[in-house]
Amino acid sequence: MSKKTYQQSTEEIMLQVGSQFNGLSEKEVSKRLEENGLNQLKEKPKKSSFQLFIETFKDAMVIILLIVAVIQLLMGAHVESIVIFAVLLLNSFVSVIQTKKAEGSLDALKSLSAPDANVFREGKEKVVLAKELVVGDVVLLEAGDYIPADGRLLEVGSLKVDEGMLTGESVPVEKNLASINQTVPIGDQNNMVFSGTIVTYGRGRFVVTATGNDTEIGQVADLLEGTVEQKTPLQRGLDSFSKKLSLAILALSLVILGVQIFRILVHGSSGDMTADLLNAFMFAVAVAVAAIPEALQSIVTIVLSIGTKNMAKKQAIIRQLPAVETLGATSVVCTDKTGTLTQNKMTVMAYYLPNDKEEEVTDPNKWTSDFKQLMTISLLANDAAITETGEKIGDPTEIAFLDYSEKLTQPYREIRELYPRLQELPFDSDRKLMSTLHYMSEEHLLLTKGGPDIVLERSNRILVDGKVELLTEDMRMKIQEQNEAFSNRALRVLAFAYRPLENRSLVLEDEQELIFVGLMAMIDPPREEVKQAVSDARDAGIKTVMITGDHKTTAVAIAKEIGISTEGDLAFTGVELDALSEDELKENLERISVYARVSPENKIRIVRAWQEKGHVSAMTGDGVNDAPALKQADIGIAMGTGTDVAKDASAMILTDDNFASIISAVKVGRNVFDNIKKAIAYLFAGNLGAIIAILFALLMGWDNPFTALQLLFINLVNDSLPAIALGMEKAEPTIMKRAPRNPNEGIFSGNTLTSVTYRGLLIGLAVIIAQYLGMAQSPELGVAMAFSTLIWSRTLQTLPARSNSQTALKAGLFSNKMVMIAIVVCSSLYGVTLIPGIRQIFSIPTNFSLNEIIISVALAISATVLMEVTKLGIKAVKRINQKTQVNPINE
To answer: CB count, 10 Å around CB of 868?
Structure first.
């Protein structure tokens, strides 16, 4: 197995890329550019808007509607066909716009490329366009530079690089030149630099080892291109239902047509064979129009939009409407640690002084001399600063010391003004120390901070109760034990020391024979509200999994503190995960609560593993490295402070970067799905009632009870407002106490199908009675009464449709005011159909009077009351059964 780039020596790398320390020749650069192309990301061609538009007509229900519209156009029913075409075109345009908005992940990725680069070519330094870099180019780096390509470091001078967009971690990485023998993730490849990351401190020089799509950011782009966005459970459910319904409608229409033609052929025509066949054909078409809920897509979109608005109040911005509903089915949340579960702010948690009891004293005048010395060193051997506007500049660890001092009411500026810096020895990744020189207590003091092992090794004395003593082996052991104790709590530890100096000219040799003062321990602490949110998620049947670029020890400690990791749970690093087979991962998946030091490929693998087990997965992230997994997940959740790449690959953005907001959004998502089911049930119960009435009329040899225009008016205009109003119902109190729904369950799962069927039967029965009563005077009056009863029954059905378990009175008639408004508006719309001139369009004869309206309304009210009374009966039976089970009768 060949060595990876970071495992080779610089000499091996230079030989491999065919370069030298003074750079390539311009001739060689031109040759390589011609062979390998520019240093920029390449992408596959996207589908055109026209292709996307055509694809919207592949839906089975849309095809049926198109056939119906064409038939009606040929038959001369121009108004009906134009209405259907308009609805289909509107839905297609909305779909194309949504799809085009979702594209853009790769465009955002491209924007991270540096515009130009400082290179050595033919031994001379020059500035070139970053896209013209080739493998073998030697690039110079300074603080503030975007790194233009992947490469192996040749020189470093206190070089620190912010690799958060690739690793997810906010602390800059200290770079060095040492080869690494073992396999390590990107976050630990400290002799490498990567395209798109930023130099925060120091300087360096590297040789380019990868450009364009061969870089780490290029591999992320390839993953993004190859990742297919998942359809939501609702989309899958509606697609499946749409196909089944379309086949059923087609079969039913053909059967009806066949029966009609058979009757004509057997019993003979009424006079005009062509007219009779045409009527038979239009009867079959009417069934298709009655059965297909033309406004379904629009209503679902509107209900999802209402959910989007509600989620925005919970700090969740929805980029793709179906994501609202997906949240309600989420059973696994794979979340980043830094900034989402934690505060993304290094905080001093503890300190250690020999023979000094740890106790935070907020009055600096009461500090012990040892603690005062510890605080002074932490503030002076420190390059961070807080501006007048409150902006914090510098390394997160150094900022933590300033925050700690401010918290203890000691303004750090006072200390710095009192003891100005005279000289410094900057931090170096080889020494792992930083030292500064100050004039204090009438002498010059060298103040040092650094890694505990290094500082302890260079110390020969110790400060105890204000006195300097020899550092004994017992004391060394005690300090090492305390350092280990802090490390076991996943705390980051730094040590502090000082020494008097005679000379004022600092050299590296001065960092010896130090006086050890103490330790300070820090961590990025959890957000206060996260522990409760994790608990709420567990109650709702949602498993929380931490996926982080941080070290395993730190990740596990945080996970245990907030309740993500419990007794018996496992934790894996990315390298350990790579060593697992697919079967081993599946076997252990539900016990793994923490993944640390992971790669983008690891994240996608974890998400896919949960999806293959039938779970709906949500994935959070903010970096470029998160984008492929965000796109793969059922719902990708980007952080508001994250990269544009992550946002463009996600379905939802958290404006406050807070895990607790995800759980609040899940509640809204569950309620949205409940309300969509109520709206769909409402639509199909009404459509079923119409079909039952049509079939009964066919069997009895009556006229078709409705015209196509009447049915289109009800489906598109009258039914829309009540369905939308049902989308505004409040959540049930127990909504977050039930398990996530099965993503594979149908739209009519549970008792929804029973409810739809029962309500449809009652509506159909009311319409049949109305047509029968009207036919006593004339067939035309029978049709008018059928239409009138159907529109009133479907309007009033909004009340029982609000809940399958409780009546509208129990839920509160005015708890959802939109329902009452919808009923009033629909009643007014019905009145419009009775206006002279318009009533003829809707086939309502002149002898249709107030008496017929009263009969229609009475029949509709009777059906509605029966729906509500039945709920009370079912509830009473359930109570009796429960009592019987609790108190069984002794036989």
So the answer is: 15
